[in-house]
Amino acid sequence: MRLLRLLLPVALAAVVAPPLQPALAAAARDPYPAECPWMNTRKSAGERAALLLAASTPEQRMRWLVEHPANQPSGTTFSGVTYPPQVPCTPNVTYTDGPDSVRGPAGVTTFPAQIGLAASWNADLAFAKGRAQGAEAFGKGRNVVLGPGLASGRTPLSGRTPEYLGEDALLGGTLAAAHVNGLQKGDPERPVMAVLKHYLGNEQELDRQLSSSNMDERTLRQVYDLPFEVTLGGSSPGAVMCSYNQVNGVYACENPMLKEVLKDGFDGYVMSDFGSVHSTGPSVAAGMDQELNRPRFLTPDLLKAAIAAGEISQAQLDAAAFRVVRAYLKAGLFDHPVPAVPAEDVSTPEHKAVSQAIAAQGSVLLKNDPRILPISKRAGRIAVIGPTASNTPTNGVSANTVCGMRGFGAGDCKITPVAPLDAITRRAAAQGATVTFDNGADLASAAATARDADVAIVFGYYTMGEGADRPNLNLDNGGDALIEAVAAANPETVVVLETGSAVLMPWLGRVKAVLEAWYPGDQQGTAIARLLWGDDNPSGRLPMTFPKDVADLPTRTPEQYPGVFADGGTVRPPGDRTSIRQVNYTEGLKVGYKWYDSEGVEPLFPFGHGLSYTSFAYEGLRLDRHRDGFTARFRVRNTGARTGTETAQLYVTLPGRAAEPGRRLAGFEQVTLRPGQSRTIEVKVRADAADHPLSVWDTAAGRWTTVPGTYRVQAGRSSRDLPLSAAVRLP
Ligand code: BGC
Asked: Residue of the nearest CA to atom 6 in ligand 1?
């Protein structure tokens, strides 16, 4: 937790510092070139965008509607389409994928997967990550980061779960906003623009381009739009990316929800995903402003034809260009051009410290029973088992293949991480212990290695990523059998998991401790060793429910997942490349912990769960009503023997009339406490907050509404460990 304390002042200072000092920036850049009045930094971004577009030809305006819209070194011919040179003083605008790290070039930090960031429940850390990632993007000559990403965790099988921020709108939206703010405001001299993605209902990779996520309006608002709304309530990303899938039979990038829901209050622009555009006129008319990757549907010829056909007006096209240019100006991209020559290595010690802090604070101690961890000084012989513990590949698998940057398939890392085996060997040596490694390829050999040790640390993993869903939630490569064999040989077994989503644990009763480290990035070894030996005290909490069985998931029928075709089957008919898989979100609001709680399904580990090497007590919940909600106050006390960080969680159950499943997270706060120390936690719950903690979507009225009645309020350590309870009546 020392790192957290070191990082906090940096992150907080950056939060409170004014994002840009307009007067200074203006003075530094005055006088601006006479032919570029849009470079006058005394004017607003909107005024500047209007000036620029007024001086542009129609084709120059159309150029803003595709990626790489400004003066690229590559010239003006882009994917076979030739544009006139852009007006002067336009910067290079170059995109890079996120959201975990700057994707592509070498010499960048490989941060842990976003699901691990979510498990930290630490918005300051998300800000610090955005700041570091933004600086790296800028140094590499990229000034738009395609991230962070959000989904609602409808099924843990969804391939991109590690890229997202868990199953709760408040948690995910809060961290996404902090990530966006870190990217966009973390370093005013090296600004980058963030793109929130993927809007909306991109909850599976299977047939993501040929499926329709079918849901009612209340579900759309409360489950799938809400994380975006929370993020937009706490930050201003320059753009939001529309997703591949259809929503209720209409492709997301030409869906009326773009204007009716997303753009209601959002003044950035909407960009497509790679190849998620299916039309010219309907897409622009629906509010999609820019085509990502290359001009296919938004070419000048097709745009002119759409205008001629009356599908869109010139004004609509200009409005799209305006939103794009205004967003770039607002983000500072015009006033702070990226370096002409990208730096070779942009991963600084400070960025690596952030990466390590995310790995440390995002790792969740799921079980420690009886307290086998931290590893005792008396343990002289340590066995480390499993292919992902080491940087030396076993059948192509190593620490590097679970490094946190997931493209299509495994092994997308650009740098060799600090391997757990190396860090553990060093840490053990510091107290005179020795380490024996077994790669786990042979069960008998692994068991023998475990038998000869005082403690066996066995690593289990599975890979997942964009392009495909997980077929199951079991460990890859015989991981379950390996853990069974090790645990049978040595009862003092500790499991370290590296997965991008929930895991089934058939061996749970036979091991003493489980640490879920997700895909922990380039500093994984140091972070894991420090947690195992207690140099850092675990504080991560699950951002998603871990089920006991795949049959327990809310998506129980084939119509819900993976979705069906006209013949009722789940398998795409051979040769059929056009039929749309219908995925019916009939579980409605019952997603994530709300499903388990309302249906009485016992999870393996609940949302919000995570252990510490100390213990905490909760005392005295008091509620004070105010005009638009209430304030909850309660005390958290460290009742153990060492300093630790607790994430206190507040949940609200709405009155029965609201017809809401289970309870919902309405606030959380992190406190670091010394032994015996206590602190009062104060959570203000306001009906009009961006996460609408007390409201439901009233479809008939088309607005959020608060149902009068008694609201039950509970506080505690997880969604299922809530020792404090009180009630408040709201009018
Ligand atoms: C992904 C996006 C990503 C884009 C560019 C697409 O396949 O869906 O999330 O931003 O590629 O890398």
From this structure: 274
pLDDT of res. 25: 44
146 lines ligand 1 (CB under 6 A): yes
Q: Judge whether 23 and 7 are in contact, CB under 8 Å.
A: no
State the angle between helix axes of 420-429 and 524-533 in degrees (0 to 180), rounded to the nearest 10. Answer: 40
What is the per-residue pLDDT across 644-672, written as a single tens digit (0 to 9) for each? 999 999 999 999 999 999 999 999 999 99
Mean pLDDT across the stretch 209-234? 98
In the reported structure, the alpha carbon of residue 98 is separated from the centroid of ligand 1 by a whole-number distance in angstroms of: 8
Which residue CA neighbors atom 5 of ligand 1 most closely?
97
Give percent of the chain with pLDDT exceeding 70: 93
Do the two domains 363-533 and 616-730 of this chain adopt the same fold? no
Atom of ligand 1 at shortest range from CA of 208: 8
660 ligand 1 Cβ < 6 A: no
The dihedral sign for the CA sequence 296, 193, 95, 339: positive
> Residues 115-130: pLDDT tens digits?
999 999 999 999 999 9
Indicate if ligand 1 lies below 6 Å from the C-beta of 274: yes
Residue nearest to atom 2 of ligand 1 (CA): 273
Confidence check: pLDDT of 411 > 80 = no
Q: Rg (Cα) of the chain, in Å, rounded?
A: 26
85 confidence band (pLDDT: 50, 70, 90)? confident
Asked if pLDDT for residue 10 goes beyond 90, the answer is no
CA of 137 from ligand 1 middle (Å) equals 16
Q: What is the pTM of this model?
A: 0.95
| Over residues 598-607, mean pLDDT | 98
Distance CA 629, CA 627 (A): 6
* Distance from Cα 290 to the centre of ligand 1, integer Å: 14
**Given the CA of residue 95, which atom of ligand 1 is nearest to it?**
5
> Is 273 noted as a catalytic residue in this protein?
yes
Helix axes 314-331, 45-54, angle to 10 degrees: 130
Angle at the Cα of 238 (from 96 to 48), degrees rounded to 5?
115
Choice from 94, 146, 163, 195 to test ligand 1 binding pocket (greatest atom count within 8 A of CB): 146
Average pLDDT over residues 219-230: 98
- The rounded Å distance from CA 156 to ligand 1 centre is 20
Is pLDDT of 18 > 90?
no
pLDDT for 71: 60
Pick the catalytic residue: 97, 187, 207, 273?
273
Strand order in the sheet with 239-242: 95-97, 144-146, 193-199, 239-242, 269-271
The verdict on the CB of residue 197 being under 6 Å from ligand 1 is yes
First-residue to last-residue Cα distance in the chain: 43
Q: Architecture of domain 616-730 in CATH?
A: Sandwich (2.60)
Exposed / middle / buried, residue 495 (Cβ in 10 Å: 0-12, 13-18, 19+): buried
Would you say the CB of residue 163 lies under 6 angstroms from ligand 1?
no
State the distance from the centre of ligand 1 to the C-alpha of 113, rounded, in angstroms.
Answer: 15
pLDDT in tens, 333-381: 999 999 999 999 999 999 999 999 999 999 999 999 888 999 999 999 9
Cα separation, 119 vs 107, in Å, equals 26
CA 637 – CA 19 distance, rounded (Å):
36
Domain spans in the chain, listed from the N-terminal domain onward? 363-533, 616-730
The fold of the 363-533 domain, in CATH, is Rossmann fold (3.40.50)
Q: Distance between CA 275 and CA 668 in Å, rounded?
A: 38
**Residue 544 DSSP label:** S
pLDDT, tens only, 143-162? 999 999 999 999 999 999 99
pLDDT at 271 exceeding the cut of 60: yes
The number of residues making up the chain comes to 731
Q: Whose CA is nearest to atom 8 of ligand 1?
A: 273
